[in-house]
Specification:
This protein is α/β, with parallel strands linked by helices. It folds into two domains: about 210 residues; about 280 residues, 4-Layer Sandwich (Nitrilase/N-carbamoyl-D-aminoacid amidohydrolase). Helix content is about 45%, strand content about 15%. It has 16 helices and 14 strands. The strands form two sheets. Strands 1, 2, 3, 4, 5, 6, 7 and 14 form an eight-stranded mixed beta sheet that branches. A six-stranded mixed beta sheet has the order 8-9-10-11-12-13, with helices on one face. Helix 13 packs across helix 14. The two termini are about 45 Å apart. The mean pLDDT is about 90.
Length: about 525
């Protein structure tokens, strides 16, 4: 029994995270999920055994909450789960080292900033970024608790969870303390649990509102096209007619913007961005837009451009010529006169769409399973897409919408509407599409900006600045929805200054390691 106890603690930690995570959403479990791992540390195992037990817990957390990746790519799922679980061990091994060298007084504050630093680095575009399980995301189904994300972003939720875990562990590990000391500890825990929720409820009242009748309406289409059939040759015309039919059912004289999902415009050969107007296959689309001259369409598109030189590392040569071409998972704003502005997806999915340079040799393996690692070109600037009406769009294609600070840069640059276009159908009817839709609520709160979400197979919806979901469309249903939205830009503290908590954690982490180095060399 004694030998099995540490394994039980490890499995318990992973299970608590499973319970807390959307869509299960027994969210409060996250406040206790790290405590079993702290008790494992108390048993002073060897570094190898400590690592193994920590990895087991994090692996269970990853598998139980993101197993659905398997539906789109088996190799990608294995790589994402195994690698992300391994990366999550880094702050734990740092915590263990500090505990041995500097003691518990240093260790628990260090763990807090180590984990926050890890999450922030993992949010950067480094080729293996997979921040799906950022701790602060756990509140996506409890947005009434975290309205203060407009100041902190998800890192505020991460800090909240870490502090509660540490304080409750300290309370449980010191039950021998006097009654007065236990009462003080209990009071601190209660305050830290209740105060953020109370503050959140006060803030939320300010943002609970409905748009006035003078606003222009936005129509969102959910065509419900099987993503695997979507790629079949000869199906584009049928898919385009469905998109047009659903759009016609909702647009009226008040509609200024129409939103279609990721890769709504898709062909096996892609679309040349410089010749969209003359593309024969798009004639029905331009006929539709000419019938509605005041309407602008924002849609996903699989596109390419040709260059007379190699303009990037992912530019490919055109056989028999001196030219090169780039391929994009992109979006385009267009009207009856043609394309107005393109956006190219910039935060690519690891393995499926990108790999760090040191893993590019695995590209052929992923491509055998439907990936395009190293194939898509991106853009560096967070340039909003400007319509001729009242909208300035913050474009997000699929995976990009889970990056809080990244999306806030569009709002900082003038965007007043977040438009998320996605094709979550690759994952099937699993928790994946539900988690993805819920995370969009956090982007609305962080920026206090309306969110428009067009998902090929669901969940399409509107989200107001308080994170309230409006008119969500169920999975696997073709539909079109319309809502009047105000074009109001709110530059929140988070939009203006970014993720200050994580940056402070990075600085403190660096200082802690400087102290470690100083003590090591001074002892010598």
């Amino acid at each position: 029994m004694r030998k099995a106890y540490p394994v039980f603690l490890s499995l318990l930690s992973g299970f608590l995270f499973y319970l807390s995570w959307p869509p299960v959403s027994f969210t409060a479990a996250a406040f206790f999920a790290f405590i079993p791992l702290f008790f494992i540390r108390d048993q002073q195992f060897s570094r190898v055994k400590f690592f193994s037990l920590i990895y087991l817990a994090l692996f269970v957390w990853n598998v139980s909450t993101t197993w659905w990746i398997w539906n789109s790519t088996a190799v990608g799922a294995v790589m994402a789960i195994v690698t992300n679980s391994l990366l999550m061990c880094i702050p734990w091994m740092g915590f263990n080292y500090i505990h041995r060298k500097l003691g518990a007084v240093w260790a628990y504050p260090s763990f807090t900033v180590f984990w926050m630093s890890f999450e922030y680095i993992h949010l950067q575009d480094w080729g293996l970024s997979w921040p799906w399980l950022t701790l602060g995301n756990v509140f996506a189904s409890r947005t009434e608790w975290v309205q203060w994300y407009e100041y902190t972003g998800t890192s505020g939720g991460t800090l909240w969870i870490l502090l509660i875990n540490v304080l409750v562990y300290k309370f449980l590990s010191a039950l021998h303390h006097s009654a007065i000391q236990r009462i003080k500890q209990t009071a601190w825990i209660a305050v830290l649990l209740i105060a953020p929720v109370s503050l959140s409820l006060l803030i939320e009242k300010k943002w609970l509102h409905t748009p006035s009748g003078n606003n222009k309406s936005v129509v969102v289409v959910q065509p419900n096209i099987d993503p695997y059939e979507k790629l079949a040759t000869g199906t584009f015309e049928m898919q385009l007619q469905k998109l047009i039919r659903l759009s016609e059912s909702k647009i009226d004289s008040s509609t200024s913007l129409l939103v279609w999902p990721e890769t709504a415009l898709y062909s096996a050969n892609g679309f040349d961005e410089t010749n969209l107007n003359t593309n024969f296959f798009l004639n029905p689309l331009f006929d539709f837009l000419k019938r509605h001259p005041d309407l602008q369409l924002f849609t996903g598109i699989e596109s390419y451009r040709v260059f007379n030189e190699k303009v990037s590392n992912v530019a490919k040569p055109i056989e028999g010529t001196s030219n090169y071409y780039e391929v994009y998972n992109g979006s385009v704003l267009m009207d009856s006169t043609g394309a107005k502005q393109f956006y190219h997806k910039s935060m690519l999915v690891p393995g499926v769409e990108t790999l760090p340079k040191f893993l590019l040799f695995l590209g052929p393996v992923f491509e055998k399973f439907g990936g395009t690692a190293g194939g898509y070109a991106t853009q560096k600037e967070r340039t909003p897409v400007t319509t001729t009406k009242q909208w300035i769009l913050a474009p997000a294609i699929c995976y990009e919408s889970i990056y809080g600070e990244y999306m806030s840069q569009y709002v900082s640059n003038g965007a007043n509407l977040i438009t998320i276009i996605t094709n979550d159908g690759w994952w099937g009817n699993t928790p994946g599409h539900k988690q993805h839709q819920l995370y969009a609520r956090l982007r609305a709160i962080e920026t206090r900006t309306w969110v428009v979400r067009s998902a090929n197979t669901g969940i399409s919806c509107f989200i107001d600045p308080s994170g309230t979901v409006i008119d969500p469309q169920p999975w696997w249903k073709e539909s079109a929805i319309k809502h009047q939205l105000p074009a109001v830009q709110n530059k929140t503290f988070f939009v203006r200054y970014g993720d200050l908590l994580s940056k402070a954690a990075l600085i403190i982490t660096a200082l802690i390691w400087l102290v470690v180095l100083y003590k090591r060399f001074s002892n010598k």
